[in-house]
Structure formats: structure tokens, C-alpha cells
């Protein structure tokens, strides 16, 4: 598994938070919150907002 920062991923990329199980999909950048939006792969209503520089895990199989 590889790690990356959230801003390096393209929209629609799959990632996980370090040490966590849920898979998220990166969405748009929210200018008012100054954070990146992401939603769970299994539940599109479960959004999460991540600050710039947040480390995420990529390059995994699920």
C-alpha cells in the first residue's frame, strides 16, 4: 500500500484513511470550507471533508 496527500489525487480516485477500513472516493474542493470533499464507496450520503495535506492510503485491492 502507498501513501499520498489528498490534493495529489484526481477526482474520482479511491483511497482509505490510514489504519481504517472504509474506502472513500475523492470529490470536489469546497472553497467555502477550504477542504476536499470525499464520500464513502458504500454510502454516497456519507461525506467527509479533509484538510489540505491529509495523508491517505492508495494502491490497494478491494
Topology:
Blueprint lengths: L1 E4 L8 E3 L6 E8 L4 E6 L6 E4 L4 E4 L4
Antiparallel strand pairs: 1-6, 2-3, 3-4, 4-5
Characterization of this structure:
With 62 residues, the protein is mainly beta. The chain has one domain (2-58). The protein is 0% helix and 47% strand. It is built from no helices and 6 strands. The protein has strands at residues 2-5, 14-16, 23-30, 35-40, 47-50, 55-58. The strands form 2 sheets. A 4-stranded antiparallel β-sheet has the order 2-3-4-5, with no helix packed on it. A two-stranded antiparallel sheet has the order 1-6. It is globular and about 35 Å long.
Any descriptors?
62 residues; mainly beta; four-stranded antiparallel beta sheet; two-stranded antiparallel ribbon; globular
Quick rundown:
This protein is mainly β and 62 residues long. It has no helices and six strands.
| Shape estimate | globular
What is the element string, with H for helices and E for strands? EEEEEE
Count of helices? 0
Going across the biggest sheet, name each strand in turn. Answer: 2-3-4-5
Strand fraction band? over 45%
DSSP E strands, number: 6
Q: Enumerate the spans where pLDDT stays under 50 for 5 or more consecutive residues.
A: none
Name the average pLDDT. Answer: 96
Main β-sheet description: 4 strands, antiparallel
Sheet/helix structural class: mainly beta
Share of residues in helices: under 10%
**Domains (count):** 1
Distance between the termini: 12 Å
Using only C-alpha atoms, the radius of gyration works out to: 11 Å
